Amino acid sequence: MAKIKHIAIATQDPDETARFYKEVFGLQEVGRVDNENAEGHYLSDGNVNLAILRFKNDVVAGEEFGAAYSGFHHIGFEVEDTAATDAKLRKAGSDPRADINAALNSRTGGGHGGKNVELKYSGPDGVIIDISHTGWVGTDGGDSDGAAE
Questions:
Q1: pLDDT of residue 18
Q2: SS in 3 state form for 13-27?
Q3: Overall fold of domain 3-132
Q4: What is the pLDDT along the chain (149 residues), one digit of tens a residue?
Q5: This prediction's pTM
Q6: Segments of 1-149 assigned E as strands
Q7: Measured between alpha carbons, how far is 148 from 3 in angstroms, rounded to an integer?
Q8: From CA 50, how far away is CA 116, in angstroms rounded?
Q9: Contact assessment for residue 124 and residue 95, using Cβ atoms and an 8 Å cutoff
Q10: How do beta strands 3-10 and 49-55 pair?
Q11: How far apart are CA 112 and CA 105, in angstroms?
């Protein structure tokens, strides 16, 4: 069974939003990102990685959101077999997001050096879905450095 390991919130003020979740809920900062695609913080309760991100371009944010969007953005599942999950997603009508995957240089078997998201898909209700075999930073399946979103 897949495990929910990652949730992302898009924001225009990642420092303030991260401060809120750290102060109110005691989440720990387990990484940061600042590259051509996004800037922000990775927070964790030890089980789930919460990404607080300001997207820097519309392609990576997804055309349905855009870089100016703030709110719930995507959810990530750690899966045992990315190829089998890819087949299930396609059969269910959830196609890979070629636009976002190309911009992130994501591919089955280890996008971003095997850390965090491997592939992004369209999900129901406009939600973007991530799948990963290796988990996310700050979760029991991921390592402890701040890999890119």
A1: 95
A2: CHHHHHHHHHHHHCC
A3: 2,3-Dihydroxybiphenyl 1,2-Dioxygenase; domain 1 (3.10.180)
A4: 899 999 999 999 999 999 999 998 899 999 999 999 999 999 999 999 999 999 999 999 999 999 999 999 999 898 889 899 999 999 999 999 999 989 888 764 444 444 566 799 998 778 899 998 888 888 876 554 444 44
A5: 0.77
A6: 3-10, 28-34, 38-44, 49-55, 71-78, 119-122, 128-132
A7: 20
A8: 12
A9: no
A10: parallel
A11: 7
Side chain identity, residue 101: N
The amino acid occupying position 21 is: Y
What is the C-alpha separation between 85 and 106, in angstroms, rounded? 15
Token pair of 93 as six digits:
């009508």
Structure tokens at 67: 């870089």
- Rounded to the nearest 5°, which phi and psi values hold at 69? -70, 145
For tokens 């750290």, the residue is 22
Q: What is the pLDDT of residue 115?
A: 59
Residues 6+ apart with CB under 8 A from 76: 4, 5, 6, 7, 8, 49, 116, 117, 129, 130, 131, 132, 136
Q: What is the reported pLDDT for 113?
A: 44
